[in-house]
Amino acid sequence: MFKIFYEDLVVGQKEAFGAYEVTKEEVIDFASKYDPQPFHLDEDFAKKSVFGALCASGWHTSAMMMRMMVDHMMETGFAGLGSPGIDGIEWKKPVFPGDVLTLESEVTDKRESQSRPNLGLAKSTYHVKNQKGEVVMIMRGNVMVAKRGK
Asked: What CA–CA distance (Å, rounded) separates 19 from 21?
């Protein structure tokens, strides 16, 4: 099942992947459940807001990014074992229905776990971009990665 382990990660390694189309229905559904602010729910209100149109919640953008990450992990056989947390999220631009999001990642650090010899920890920076190549979100995150044969 796993093909890419902690030992395979290289600091500076970059990847680009994913393609997630944002729909109006999903923006409204997510906001209705988790972030019911009017600029995520009502097109007329959103037109008069600072965003100028109905837009996705930043948390929805984060969830779409997570989906692209997990799909990529499954496709490549990445030996991810979960995350101890993130170091930061920046929502740089609004995400609108019709946008197609992609993801770029860069491994920025790695170290062996002191308490769990079967895994390592890696830090990465993720840039979510829209179809125009504009960065809409940046996340700096951490992942636990299985070591080969451990």
From this structure: 7
